[in-house]
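User: Round two. Same drill as before: sequence, then structure, for each protein.

Assistant: Same drill it is. First protein:
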Amino acid sequence: QVQLVESGGGLVQAGGSLRLSCAASGSISSINAMGWYRQAPGKKRELVASITSGGATNYVDSVKGRFTISRDNAKNTVYLQMNSLKPEDTAVYYCNADVYKLGYNIPYNYWGQGTQVTVSS
């Protein structure tokens, strides 16, 4: 089985920074795209940022210039550096990855359990 475990959430004042990490473990051959989603109370889950295995990145407009996604392929880990945080960034942040498991030739999509980010004004 494959697990995604997130860490790094917490409470921060507006203008502050947090760094989220998500480590994938288990029977992994390789990982394609990895990404971070968030879901605020009463809102739909939205894609915040994604990164391909080759390092190409994509961001939702509201975080461009403030958030940076990166990955360490050797550690099967993706990061989200969040700077200049705003109260509207408050949400549960979820890690997502397309994983090729050992012995399989199609990718499976996995989610982490989520980590709370709260930005106070």
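Second protein:
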Amino acid sequence: QAQLVESGGGLVQPGGSLRLSCAASGFSFDYYAIAWVRQAPGKEREKVSCISSSDTRTYYPDSVKGRFTISRDNAKNTVYLQMNSLKPEDTAVYYCAGLGSRWCDTDEYIYWGLGTQVTVSS
């Protein structure tokens, strides 16, 4: 079955960097836009990045713009999220999710990973 597996999370100091990876299997990876979505206690779920199936378009909210960069390697069925200048408010579980579209123009999520914890603390 379709599967998304996140990795690369952990504990990092404020101002530090992490690179998350999302390895996909069991579906036509290059047919779907892929998003990173985070969930923190007491906060609404937030889409922090998205990349179209052909990586011609990307999306970032103001909260991470200029600090996070999404990329994908369709040959490896993998999406990455480079996170720089991390802040304590970035602390959350980060999920990789497949959208029901080639484009980042929908909030419909078809596939979900189990998430990876990112903790930003001194």
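The mean pLDDT is 96.

User: Perfect.
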